[in-house]
Amino acid sequence: MTRPHRPAPPDHDVRLTGWREAIRDSLGVIPAACVLGAVGLALLLRQVDIALQDDTGRLLFEGDPSAAQSLLGTIATSILALTTLVISVTVVALQLASQQFSPRVLRTFFRDTGTKVALGIFTGTFMYSLTVLRQVHAADARPEFVPRVSIDVALGLVLLSLGAFVYYVNHVVHAIRIVSIIDSVAAETRAAIREVHVPGPAAAPEEVPARPPDLVLAFESRPGSVVTLDEDDLVRVARAHRCLIRLVPRMGEYLASGVPLAEVWGDDGAPPPDLTPDVVISHVGLNRERTMHQDVAFGFRQLVDIAEKALSPAINDPTTASEALDRIHDLLRRVAVAPAPTGYHRDHEGRLRLVHPVTDWDGMVGLACDEIRTYGGTSLQVQRHMRSLLDDLLAVVDDDRRPALERQRRLLDHAADLAFPDPEERAAVHHPVL
Predict the structure, then answer these.
(1) What is the dihedral of CA 24, 26, 29, 31, to 10 degrees?
(2) 128-167, pLDDT tens digit by residue?
(3) pTM of the model
(4) Are 61 and 152 in contact (CB under 8 A)?
(5) Topology given in CATH for the domain delimited by 206-287
(6) Which residues contact 415 (CB under 8 A, 6 or more apart)?
(7) Nearest-CA neighbor of 385 among 301, 339, 298, 319?
(8) For residues 65 and 135, what is the distance between their CA atoms, to the nearest angstrom?
(9) Per-domain residue ranges for the chain?
(10) Which entry of 22, 317, 346, 386 is 20 to 30 Å from 39 by CA?
């Protein structure tokens, strides 16, 4: 007899995820790699120059040591000034994005590969020039030596740096546009949906005990937001300790010191003697701020924050809010047709071992619509976009997901009644989106 197929718990290694997020958020990893590569290239080309010392071709630098030192010094100084300018522009762009849109969107700049590569080219060229400069020997105590191939490569790196600077300026100009920012957030959220919304096992009511837990584990580590759950390792921990673990915090929630971390039911009705909070928290990733690797709701939160900022009296930009709603519409449509995560995970024998809370459809719809409706209910444009969003979703969702959308539609109609007392104005909210 064949065993029934049981989906294996996902494997989200906490350490690997933490390292990956740290690398993606760091502005220094790629520039540091470029610096090391530039130094290595300079040392390698030194050997080429030694081999070709007596063979001066037309394409090689023909100046004396003094001219070589002057040229390399000029290159290093110029590239350092260019790097300083690039860093200044980056800081200004971050400040503008933070003030104009939302502090949460700064992470899209930290993760931008184009900016990191441009900085890497500049810092690499600077270090390459300094390394080659040390190799130039004037005719004093040592024989005269001019690394001609290395100097020609330095000139090539200068051209590359100029091209990178032009690219960087063009890239930053486009990157600080709101459409680029919300598209970046939406793209990362789509990736999170594909990661999280996968078929999972259900649980029978009797599998989750109705009695109080045999053991409650309190959080005793450094506070932070939950950014990763290593489900398969937590299942192994629960199986090894012969218990069921139900995590209390949901993804993205901030854990303060002393709050409940997990509720535990032993298989034999007694608390597992060796299960400690440290054992559980070692498979739960924490960070100072939320990330979107397993946190779909954080993507919606960023788009909602952008819309709210645009609808504030100081900015009053309903078009930006509408553009954010367009991306929210697309994401909700994807969530609507994707498998709903259950939060239940079994071991290989089919026994329920791990339960963790998930954001359900009603919570996702409320997160996406409630605050934008509250702040933008008096905007005709926002009213039309929200109405179009809800009408489209009502046409594609299953019956069990309709109540949340119908509730939003009723609240939106009530907001329109309050904002537009004149019947003709109120009728305008039903016109197509322009």
Answers:
(1) 120
(2) 999 999 888 766 656 778 888 888 899 999 999 999 999 9
(3) 0.84
(4) yes
(5) Aldehyde Oxidoreductase; domain 3 (3.90.1170)
(6) 373, 374, 377, 378, 383
(7) 319
(8) 10
(9) 14-176, 206-287, 296-338+359-428
(10) 22
